[in-house]
């Protein structure tokens, strides 16, 4: 049997000769009848011209020259169209695939296999030379493809199959991944995966990018209509959730492609993790912060990962696990409730925007849902108490969950004849779990700071500072909740139907828990003068589950109408998606600024922003918020520092009617810096004036 091997090329002049030489040796050694078809997309580096010269040396070489960069998949299809062999094969031109495996794959076809895939993910296969980002993308793409095929590496670019399988089939994938479509559309019986070691290219540039990821996602949506199993999924809660879950993951992966600015608090938590890992040599420590995130982020250092990458990965993981947890809790309440609760939470603008931002918002939602899961679904009261304690140490206001669940235990048991025994028994285990974490935290405060409550008191003082900036009008949170996510309107409908029309009587207990959750936290945050959009995320789990209850009720009665309504509301919600997103040029400029001190390992920096610790291994002296504060700290600690860093956009706080005074402080600081220090970076990005200076001793 003759094999036609297709090689798509674009700018592969440094690889193509070596590849053809290896192929020639492999085919001669194993006496395989063959032809090689190279499809070149008008490579600017002259790959096409080199191939024309090589045709003299390789009599079995065919070359197709195309007018431009039309894509890998279409190049492979053009090769298939002129192939004269009984077996069609595909291999990359960049020497990443092991040529010596061709004979093994060919023998599998001869011995009866219809399709053979060179797999990186079966036993014996692996990838060499990829960074963590590419590995995560590859694994993510394979997980999404599992809906359509059981092949372990449907993203492989190295495969063979019998030509007869493709006869009369319409194949038209976009992008550079053609194998998945072949696996879905071809009628094969026997498929074999051969382990290969994939070696990342050493010469040339990878073709994978954001455009190819988008093409892949488009292909996946197109395949849904071909799969009866997926169509039937809409009729079962589990099946519908799988589809919803995949869509929400895809949306988050796409969001990762947008350039963003690292958030202030995220920088602080990453800096605290670096401080822990280096025993105070770099980073910073703000003792009034909850300690859970710095501890979690510091694990990245022990497994040799950049802390920023590890922190973003953990945040992304907590985000998608939150969607799974809310589904499990919802399905305990009733069919389809978990599905719609996960939709309501997953498309919430604020929660979605924080899904790759390493701050307390996503982790707070995750831990609070974990509490509810063990309290309501599993009824493990000691464990749920422990988790409330951890929740408290992830974000202090979550300590109010102890009150929420304590009141819920009272409500659930008060009609029972053995009320006090039931109530006190459950409350005892819950309290022991919660207080064990709280006492451990208070003891550590005393050990490190000499006082039980000083971090909590300091935190209150920080929140109360510059209060005029965060003072908001009445109704601030109400507008945010329902304008940012119209699906939350259904939570009001659930409460109204339950309390006034006696609907959902069998769900009264969980509705009471969720309603209490909302009321307790809402009262707390409304009465706080310091108001920020992100604070209200604390009640999103309760709002989502309540919304899921009435949405599932209406879905059973008016399936098509509710489905269209949900899609419409999701579109409205995503239209507000603006948090943290910047233009690519601005994002890169900010990174370059904070990366400038990357080689100054262990040096001390007086800085207006903690973001420098994300990109540079330095120890910082904070001089935040106001030019007045920066001036005082600069004058006090100048001789203890090696550099100073100013980002004027982070020194924005100015007391009411104090604009003239603030401007004077700014002029004094800049005059001292330009006069006394060696300015090594001076740039403007929009309205932000950025300066880095080496301090003259």
TrEMBL record:
Gene3D superfamilies: Spore Coat Polysaccharide Biosynthesis Protein SpsA, Chain A (3.90.550.10). It is found in: Endomembrane system. Keywords: Glycosyltransferase, Magnesium, Manganese, Membrane, Metal-binding, Transferase, Transmembrane, Transmembrane helix. Residues 4-167 form the Glycosyltransferase 2-like domain. Its cofactor is Mg(2+); Mn(2+); Ca(2+). The keyword Transferase applies. The chain crosses the membrane at residues 239-258, 264-284, 296-327, 333-352, 359-376, 396-414, 426-446, 482-503, 509-526, 533-555, 561-581. Its EC number is 2.4.1.83. This is Dolichol-phosphate mannosyltransferase. It comes from Candidatus Nomurabacteria bacterium CG10_big_fil_rev_8_21_14_0_10_03_31_7.
